[in-house]
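Morning run. Coffee first, then this:
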Amino acid sequence: MLALHGALAAAGWVLLVPLGLLLARHRRNIAPLRSAPKLGGKDMWFVLHLACVVTGVCCGAASIGVAVQELRGSGMSDSTETAHRAIGWTVLGLAVLQLMVGGVKPQPDAPRRQAWFRIHSNIGRVTTMLAWAGTGIGVYMATTRYGQDMTAWVAPLVATLGLMLGAELGLELSATAADGRAGEAYIVKELPTKSELGPQAGSSPSGRWMGGVSRKSSSGGGGLTHQSSGVTSQSSTGFEDKEATTGIDCTAAVSARG
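And here it is:
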């Protein structure tokens, strides 16, 4: 029964809940999620995120139930056992709180949306970290106290954590590269020709003024000032609760000396 306890805890806290967090964090960096159709009016990333988290919490709760039933009346209460039990109940409580917080998500334009988002994401982080710590203590107890084979527990856990961290790193690097490309992008705005500007306009090899990003140029008796704001690009990295947008506001003003 303790093997079942460990398997349920590992499936819930090491695989499913972190996977749900990964899907939410990188929902706009995973191409299949961006193009997937909605399900029940909800974005596919949200459906998968919710399914992973709810299933993981159920597995974690079941693992605690198995442990309570198995150890009832055992009288075991050393410091390791106490720490493992305390972490387990704390993780379950935080996970339930996280689900409750997720159920009261404000509208995107609500003033408290950012505060809600930070609370929701940070509870998820803390819960996952505590769950991994509790799992590590559980593996230690299983191998030193109950004679379980360490390799049978450590190998799949390390492989799962490695895949999760590798996916996180790969998606993070991909998002960073995408943000860098967006920051370098610009819109070239075609301005009126010299003849359209009048005789006071300066000359240009192409006969037209071409505006770039944050560029100011002047020629001869006339000058053109072209100012453009920087690119706003926000991906899901850092759990930012914003849609990825790329936009440039281009304005131009022509000034001439009289």
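The CA atoms of residues 37 and 44 lie 7 Å apart. Good start to the day.
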